[in-house]
Amino acid sequence: NIVSAIILIVIMVAIGYNLPLMGIAISLDYDTWMIILGVYILVASVAPVWILLQPRDYLSSYLLYGMIILAIIGIVGASIMGAATDLQIPAFTGFVASNAAFDASTGQQLVDEAGKTITNKAAASGFLFPALFITIACGAISGFHSLVASGTTSKQLDKEGQAQPIGYGGMLIECVLAVISLCAVGFVWSKYAAGGYASPTAVFADGLSQMLACIPGLADVQGLAYALLILAVSAFCLTSLDTATRLARYMFQELWTPVDKKPEELTGVHKFMANPYVATIITVVIGIILGMTGYSIIWPLFGAANQLLAALALLAVCAWLGNAGRNNKMFFVPMAFMLLATLTSLAITFYQKVTTIMTSGIALAPVLQAILAVLLFVLAIVLAVKGVKTIVATAKKQKASSAE
Q: Of residues 90 and 345, which shows the higher confidence score?
């Protein structure tokens, strides 16, 4: 029963919020949480979709809708009360962005007592192109989402026609969320620009909770609203963990499954490594090790890698539609643009890391990032060339057939 499930969610949230207020708190260190999450995603990623993933995501959507409703109430309320009528965010700050903190009124960079530049940890630095499209495009096109659509979403559809409203509707909701996020940043711009936040999530929750507190009668709900907004964001981060693990397991199994064989025909090492449980355990262990030893070493490449995968997904669908004799011309421009943007990003990353190595010496992070950037760049070129050849060959074959 959906109503009962929602009521239970509300009760659990209320209990969790009030326990610390009553002096009861559960505090675990980082490594312990990593192990707990590892056990969770190990179970969740091998369980059938209908047992956990589908109902959990469905119920989590109510947290999302609740968060959006709270945000809209806060934005409208703060605007009516005159507290959000002057959101001072610079329209353009230059072609090259910096993550250094600065005074929002004077534009001067802030430094500490030792004269060192203060870093705005919630901000990002880089060139306007391609960083703008690598960042924003994730809301409209994403390689990870293409894997989700093929690996899990497709299994929850009754018919193909349901894909369009779900995909397009999801994009519209994310657009609304993007505008809400912009309002949140604008409301706390001075603190944000001065480096007063440790993460984008904190900026989002603090900005919206402050807006809600501007409404008469809601001045005391800022703490509760902040906690609920953080919870909603965290819930969706959690849903991504086991979904990503499930998809990684699929791909790991495919690596050990020859093209000309079915899974049930595998023997020896191939059969062992392609086993769902073995593949899942290996995937989870690698993820937990990265989480405990420093995922930040490879995290800077996530944006480019994700958008590159999106470009290759467009390439694959374009080739498939062409081979099926259907119109695929609508893919040409976005596919080419995404390839250009992501390859440019990888080239810039490689140049920056090599420069760092030459000036500061050899270190693990820049060396590994430079190597991965080259590998991604080369693999993308190889796949792009093969894909374009397939598209061109198919088009020529169809043109010849129609001429006959």
A: 345
Sign of CA dihedral 192, 197, 198, 200: negative
| 49 close to 55: Cβ distance less than 8 angstroms | no
Q: Are 182 and 107 in contact (CB under 8 A)?
A: no
Distance CA 296, CA 368 (A): 11
Question: Phi and psi for 257 in degrees, rounded to 5?
Answer: -115, 105
Buried b (16+ CB within 10 A) or exposed e, 154-164: eeeeeeeeeee
**Can you give the pTM of this predicted structure?**
0.82
Three-state secondary-structure class, residue 141: coil
> What single-letter DSSP state applies at residue 91?
S
Cα separation, 299 vs 311, in Å, equals: 19
Q: How far is CA 116 from CA 100, 120, 326, 359, in A?
A: 10, 13, 59, 19
Averaged pLDDT, 319-344: 89
Alpha helix (H) ranges present in 196-331? 200-213, 222-255, 268-273, 276-293, 302-323
Confidence of residue 137 (pLDDT cuts 50, 70, 90): low
Average pLDDT in the chain = 86
**Backbone angles phi and psi of 140, in degrees to 5:** -110, -30
- The dihedrals phi and psi of 196, each to the nearest 5 degrees, come to -85, 5
How many CB atoms neighbour CB 394 within 10 A?
A: 19
Host H or E run for residue 97: strand 96-97
Q: How far is CA 119 from the centre of its chain?
A: 23
Looking at residue 271, its pLDDT comes to: 92
Q: Nearest-CA neighbor of 376 among 318, 298, 300, 304?
A: 304
Residue 289's Cα: distance from chain center in Å? 20
Contact between residue 230 and residue 201 where contact means Cβ atoms under 8 Å apart: yes
Output Rg (C-alpha) for the chain, integer angstroms: 24
Mind listing the pLDDT tens digit for each residue in 232-254? 888 888 788 888 888 889 889 99
Give the model confidence (pLDDT) of 185-208 as tens digits: 999 988 888 888 888 889 999 999
* Alpha carbon distance 95, 238 (integer Å): 35
Distance CA 96, CA 347 (A): 16
pLDDT recorded at residue 50: 83
Taking the mean position of all CA atoms in its chain, how far away is CA 360?
A: 31
The torsion of the CA quartet 153, 158, 164, 169, rounded to 10 degrees, works out to -70
- Interatomic CA distance for residues 38 and 51, integer angstroms: 19
